[in-house]
Amino acid sequence: HLIGNEAEIVTEKITSTFGQAKVFNDGAEILLNVQCAAEHHLVKGDKVLVIAYTKESHSYVVAPFPTELT
Q1: Alpha carbon distance 70, 60 (integer Å)
Q2: Are 36 and 26 in contact (CB under 8 A)?
Q3: Do residues 34 and 5 make contact, with C-beta atoms less than 8 angstroms apart?
Q4: Which of 13, 17, 22, 42 is the least crowded, having the fewest Cβ atoms under 10 Å away?
Q5: Which of 27, 33, 25, 28 is nearest to 52 (CA)?
Q6: What is the pLDDT of residues 45-70, one digit of tens each?
Q7: Secondary structure (DSSP) of the chain
Q8: In DSSP terms, which residues pair with 50 in a beta bridge?
């Protein structure tokens, strides 16, 4: 139920295999293992959108937060 939530990158960068982001869920901060498509350049402090969950890697896929939603 975290898909569709806004998150913030907490590691220096996100790659297609590694990264972490924090998300707030019902008032609690949760640290997620995340990854993104190779064409995205996401770094610490960037806002992202949680778009999917990958069972194989037990991580969430994130994308840059759409500017029209800010």
Answers
A1: 21
A2: no
A3: no
A4: 17
A5: 33
A6: 999 999 999 999 999 999 999 877 65
A7: --TT-EEEE-SSEE-SS--EEEEEETTEEEEEEEE--TT--EETT-EEEEEEEETTTTEEEEEEPPGGG-
A8: 62
pLDDT at 18 over 80: yes
Indicate whether 44 pLDDT > 90. Answer: yes
Q: CB–CB of 20/32 below 8 Å?
A: yes
Nearest by Cα to 49 from 58, 57, 12, 40: 40
Distance CA 18, CA 26 (A): 25
How many residues would you count in the chain? 70
Please identify which residue in the block is written with the tokens 């220096």. 12
Structure tokens at 2: 């975290």
32 and 14 Cβ atoms separated by less than 8 Å:
no
